[in-house]
Amino acid sequence: MSSIKIELRQEDVNKIREICTSFKNDPQELINVLHKCQEHFGYLPAEVQEVISNELVVPVAKVYGVVTFYSFFTMTPKGKHPISICMGTACYVRGAEKVLEEFKKELGLQVGQTSADGKFSLSSLRCVGACGLAPVVMVGDKTYGRVAPDDVRNIIKEYE
Amino acid sequence: MEMETIKLTIDNKTVEVPKGTTINKAAKELGIDIPVLCYMELKDLCIENKPAGCRICVVEVQGRRNLAPSCATKCEEGMVVKTHTTRVLNARRTVMEFILSDHPKECLICAKSGNCELQSMAHQLGIKEIPGQEIAAMSTYKKDTSPSIIRDQDKCILCRRCEMMCNEVQTVGALSAVNRGFMATVAPAFEQNLEHSTCTYCGQCVAVCPTGALTEVDNTPDVLRALADPSKTVIVQTAPAVRAALGEMFGMEPGTLVTGKMVTALRALGFDYVFDTDFAADLTIMEEGTELLDRLTRHLNGDKTARLPILTSCCPGWVNFFEEYFPDLKDVPSTAKSPQQMFGAIAKTYFADKIKIDRKDLVVVSIMPCLAKKYECQRDEFSVDGNRDVDFSISTRELASFIKQANLDLNNLEEGEFDAPLGESTGAGVIFGATGGVIEAAVRTAYELHTAKKLDRLDFTELRGLEGVRSATIDFNGLPINIGIAHGLGNARKLLNDVRAGKSLFHAIEVMACPGGCIGGGGQPLHHGNSEIIKARAAAIYREDKQKPLRKSHENPFIIKLYEEFLGKPNSEKAHHLLHTHYFDKKKKIIVKQ
Amino acid sequence: MKKIKSPEELKKLKTEALERLYGKEKIRVRVHMGTSGLASGAKEIYDFLRLELEKRSIEADVIGTGDMGYSFAEPTIEVKRPGETPVVFGNVDKIKADEIIEKYIKNGEYVDGILPVNYQSIY
Amino acid sequence: MPREKMQIIVCGGTSCNGNNGEAVIDNIRLELEANALENDIRVVRSGCFGLCTMGPIVKIMPGDTIYTKVTPDDAHEIVSEHIMKGRKVERLLYKDPEGKKPLTTEKELTSHKKQIRIALRNCGIINPENIEDAIAHKGYEALATVLTELKPQDVIRIIKDSGLRGRGGGGFPTGLKWEIAYKNKSDEKYVVCNADEGDPGAFMDRSVLEGDPHAVLEAMIICGYAIEAHNGLIYIRAEYPLAVARLKSAIQQARDYGLLGKDILGTGFDFDIDIRYGAGAFVCGEETALIHSMEGLRGEPTVKPPFPAESGFRGKPTNVNNVETFACISPIILKGAAWFAGIGTEKSKGTKVFALAGKINNVGLIEVPMGITLREVIFEIGGGIRKGKKFKAAQTGGPSGGCLTEKHLDLPIDFDNLTAAGSMMGSGGLIVMDEDDCMVSVAKFFLDFTVEESCGKCSPCRIGNKRLHELLEHITKGKGTLADLDRLKNMSLVIKDTSLCGLGQSSPNPVLSTLTNFRDEYEAHVTLKKCPAGKCKDLMEYFIISANCVGCTACARVCPVGAITGERKEPHLINPSICIKCGACMEKCKFDAIIIQ
Q1: Which listed residue, of A79, B465, D210, D358, carries a Cα 20 to 30 Å from B376's Cα?
Q2: Residues 6+ apart with CB under 8 A from A29
């Protein structure tokens, strides 16, 4: 046990406090608070969780326990162009695995990783509900449907 | 009101139990012991862990689609339960194989070997092999060593007992279940080491861990090295709770007092002097009792700077707790050091002078029921020029192991006597080991010092017991003194919140971090969820008190002598220098980056 | 707007709403814009139709709705000519949308890609 | 606007196409040309009519006449009789199976339309962001009835009588659930809508929320009235931004119109609704886990009892229903319990929304009455299997479900039949697989999902599923033995029998049902070390048929590891020890010279 310092910029601390206050600092609103913070910061670094813990009076271990339970929350910053490959059943059956493999190969990234230049990050997700377009790839907010492994290079090119 | 009861059949036997009883408990009534793994209950302490997660205790309930966890399923009228059908046995075995398939098979060198609930369960279920182990991946995690506790989550079976203790009982919140699925485990925030968490090292997680996932740091090699060094004089102090529990590790009945045998064993192990922390406990009473009377008098005289209640400070887990959670109240607890540290300070000054050796050549070892003591003796403020007042602290469990390593059988040892002068103590020092004991000891002395009258009774039974928060008012010759007692940090937090809010009516509060006090400490022989053991240890402590010729700290002749020869008066400048300390604000700080 | 204070007021509002939204017979186009439709480009079709129908001086309501469930043919739109049963078109891109305006909306001539209604309504 | 001209619509669905549909169109056009009608009569292709077993379909407008099983030779008669003389071609009209009089028009065929839209009644019809459009389509009418004419017990009775069962997967009778919540008296109660749709391949809840959010709000208020609750919560996936946006706007509009909040419709009943977000945990579909998640905790399930109806959100009686269940409530109130109970089978009433996906032509959402057969769903509504391949299995119930096979094609789909067949209704995902799908791999895919989504609380689910997955992986690598199949089965049964919540209790279903229905395929993997579907990389070998190879070198150029050698214009060879089985060569080859062995 030792005293720890958490370093954050004042405006960041203020933002987190503002979010927590907007949920009346109610510990039951932890997940909503985390959503808002991730929306703002793009991810949930340890420092942010520490401040949330402080504001909501929830042990930071518990905050971390929640963050690591839900796949939507992330502690690593996403790339500028986050690439998600839908691995829902419909996409799987129509060959999403091969598309994912191709992305891994082209980007040299594993699922959950972000490229060194911060440009791309790769993730898989469970069903975006565009099963008619399977297999589906999302880059940021843009959806690509009926993606074949051959299309992967061109999709990446759009963002390079 | 008559309690509603329920009749059911378990393994063809009928039993009637109160409504709300679980199948597991109902089965116990019939003498059927359904194996449990994650479930744990410390009945008298109102502590229950019931995640229904391990699924070992499953039973067949007629009409139910799947098997029921007997630990968490309540009996219903007319229920027909079978606890050992082939379906149940196969399920239990297969689940156990699952658990073992994700558990390191290093029992030979595991700290918990021989005392591991998982190991016993594997044995009980007759597991001889784990099918498919060759293709089974294991969930592995970073190892973590802190001054007190070692975490090896590879061995975690996710019983969640530690998490429950840390959060619900202790409200420390250092541990939480983290991650999901196969990689789920219990860890501090960000899976950092305990050192960077809010952990108080109370060790209650270790006390309940069924496997080798949570163990104490083993300091016996350090002690062995010191003993082997001819240039060192090695002395040992033993805490009161140790003598009431050590025997359990040698097959004795819980509650057997082994004070004399323990002394003999320690001497046989090669310690140059075998002393008693009880001596320092008496000293603590002199200092803390005087401080209490001083604050009380000043307070009664209207001195606003004299804050009441005074809080005891002998428990290092408790000290860590308020430094972390109540730093704003850090001037409230007594400044008296814990008995362990008082002992160290006196040993390395008064005693070292007496035997004419340099403090650097004197090694002080403490035997403690506690894991926080390991951290406490490493605190910077408790050393002089890098030389610690107490060099090493080992737990009751480590001592037992040490004794066994030396092929000594405690059962067959003669009764020895502590050495003088730091081995003499009164009954007041002994009762430090049980919740309420410190304050009872303080009352015995403070009453007589304050009123200058002799107490006509010494057993303040109103201060004893296992209830989490207790209070009593003691009549100090017309002055009613309100006393609060809390054991378990969650209970302490309740009293502290009142103090913070200015609502506390107590003059003095005793806090012990561990449920039951030191007898239930994190370094004690494992109770495996049997609170009878803790009760038996408490009884032993009070028995020892009763046998003592002297039962009031201020009557300890060696204490009187210590003041005469060395310290002067209680709370004298010298006493302050050696026997008192100060506290730190250890709350996490949010620092703003410029 | 004012709160509905009784069941009667709700009934009244329903009548008013029906009149306001559906009272006047004109071309009515529903563009199915759920997630799936939008992912297939329904928003572009919606914008295109609004713009083009206005440009071509055809009085029409273009409404964005949820998806119909015809994922295989998205984007889909439904066109209702006054007095006629609505017709759903699938795989609508801008070229197809243009064709639908020119042929079906203007002249009632079908174009390829009609999706037959294959369900029963309950009301 | 010009009047309707005569037009001919020919089904261009894949199934009709495969049945000479193109030739039908060609011949009709030729016939029209022969009669110089090509400029007057338009012939267009349509999407699938959902009458695939009767295809190819030709429809003549106006008049809605439907001709079934039309052959290219019938073109002459259709043009000369119907188009030119206005006489229907009787023999091509659809006759219902009982052989009664022919059904001429599409309208008459309506009763043969397989789909009935109850939950989806307004989806694609109303503007979800305009509450008045919803009100114009009977929105909140049922609420008005409930609040003014019915007592809570009456509402519960109606729902009970309707036979409605939970659409989220469990199939628990909704009315009974409401009744339990009603009977547990408390100062505070909650109505929770479970919109944490997590089954991969199911998106009906999202469609309802996006298309008709008011259907859910209205039903929640009705439920609140019935169980005497005043607070509603919608637990929705954060991954559904559009649904969230439409829901938020619907809630705001409902508040503005006084349909949420205090004194709804002047009846004195108060009810309001809040949104809580899920954050990507499939297990939160389980109600106790969902409630913990709403309380800001890890979404771990707890032992039931106590059920949420006794002790749920914040320890108060809580009724949890899924989106689709709620979407069925208003029509039941308006049209009566008997009407709803008249649809479906004995124990499964009403309709069910399915998300058709996989190797099926008409991927999408359908709503069909309970009791419909798999054959009707796949081969009529679904338009059959893609690329004319052979149907192999349909996976229902998502990762908790199992695979249905050819022998189940005529099984009426309802809760109990699916369970009996080793699968389950689940939330309604229906994934169709064809001959190219390896069932061991499919089981592995679902286990992969479960392993990732297991919360980790109980050991059989946390470790057992991982072990199942590993063993399946072992088998797909050709390293399995026959004994492993027994182990697979035993582990599966124990995981089902001992897991804490529905996730673990059903996660081995994909393994068990494939093991039962496709045992031969498993055996081929372990004994012959072959994957009959040619999916398992480790069990296949790419091979060039030298007779077909023209030596174009395309395969050798595309091979990423240089495993293909051969001279130009000479048959090439694949070196199996270098080949990584990526399949690139096979995709490139224009001469069908590369096969998998």
Answers
A1: B465
A2: A23, A56, D296
Q: Does C39 touch chain D (CB under 8 A)?
A: no
Assigned token pair, B578: 């050696």
Kindly tell me if the per-residue pLDDT of B465 is higher than 80: yes
Helices (H), B196-329: 204-208, 220-228, 240-243, 259-269, 277-300, 316-325
Residue B590 and residue A49: Cβ atoms within 8 Å?
Answer: no
D226 and D136 in a single domain? The answer is yes
Q: Are B207 and B527 in contact (CB under 8 A)?
A: yes
Out of A1, A9, A61, the one facing B195 most closely (by C-beta) is A1
Q: Distance (Å) from the C-alpha of residue A32 to the closest C-alpha of chain C?
A: 23
Say if C11 falls within a structural domain. no
Asked if residue A72 is part of any domain, the answer here is no
Tokens 């199996």, located at residue: D576
Picking from B178, B324, B593, the nearest residue to A7 by CB comes out as B593
Which residues in chain B are contacts of A4 at CB distance < 8 A?
196, 588-589
The listed CATH number (3.10.20.740, 3.40.50.2300, 3.40.50.300, 3.20.20.140) that belongs to domain B5-84:
3.10.20.740
Number of domains making up chain D: 5
SS (H, E, C) D196-242: CCCCCCCCHHHHHHHHCHHHHHHHHHHHHHHHCCCEEEEEEECCCHH
| Model pTM score | 0.92
CA distance C109 to D371: 39
* Coil vs helix vs strand at D566: coil
Q: At A86, which CATH number?
A: 3.40.30.10
Cβ(D321)–Cβ(D177) under 8 Å?
yes
Cβ contact, residue pair D458, B67, below 8 Å: no
Q: Is D100 in the C-facing interface, judged by CB distances under 8 Å?
A: no
- Does residue A2 surpass a pLDDT of 70? no
| Residue B548 appears among annotated catalytic residues | no
The reply to whether A153 and A105 lie within a common domain is: yes
Does B248 participate in catalysis according to the annotation? no
Pairwise CB contact (< 8 Å): C72 & D11: no
Q: In what order do the strands lie in the sheet with B233-238?
A: B273-276, B233-238, B362-368, B392-395
Q: Are residues D139 and D41 in the same domain?
A: no
Instruction: CATH number of the domain at C47, please.
Output: 3.40.30.10
Q: Which residue of C has its CA nearest to D267?
A: C6
Q: Are residues D469 and D502 in the same domain?
A: yes
Please provide the distance, in angstroms rounded to a whole number, between the alpha carbons at the two ends of chain B: 67
What CATH code is carried by the domain that includes residue D193?
3.40.50.11540
Inside any domain, residue C36:
yes
CATH of domain B99-216: 3.30.70.20
Between helix B117-124 and helix B86-101 the angle, nearest 10°, is: 140
Question: pLDDT value at position C40?
Answer: 87
Q: List Cβ<8 Å contacts ≥24 apart for B302-308.
A: B307/B331, B307/B332, B308/B506, B308/B507, B308/B508
Q: How many domains does chain C have?
A: 1
For A14, the enclosing helix (H) or strand (E) is: helix A10-22
Distance, CA of B491 to CA of B496 (rounded, Å): 9
Q: Is residue C57 part of a domain?
A: yes
Nearest neighbour of A89 by CB, restricted to D294, D431, D583: D431
Domain span at residue A43 reads 10-67
Both D426 and D443 in a single domain?
no
Query: Is B156 among the residues known to form the active site?
Result: no
pLDDT in tens, D487-541: 999 999 999 999 999 999 999 999 999 999 999 999 999 999 999 998 898 888 8
- Contact state of B55 with D457 under an 8 Å Cβ cutoff: no
Per-residue confidence at D46, pLDDT binned at 50, 70, 90? confident
Percent of chain C with pLDDT over 90: 67
Q: How far is B146 from chain A (nearest CA, A)?
A: 9
Q: Which CATH number fits the domain B221-579, given the four candidates 1.10.357.10, 3.40.50.1780, 3.30.505.10, 3.10.310.10?
A: 3.40.50.1780
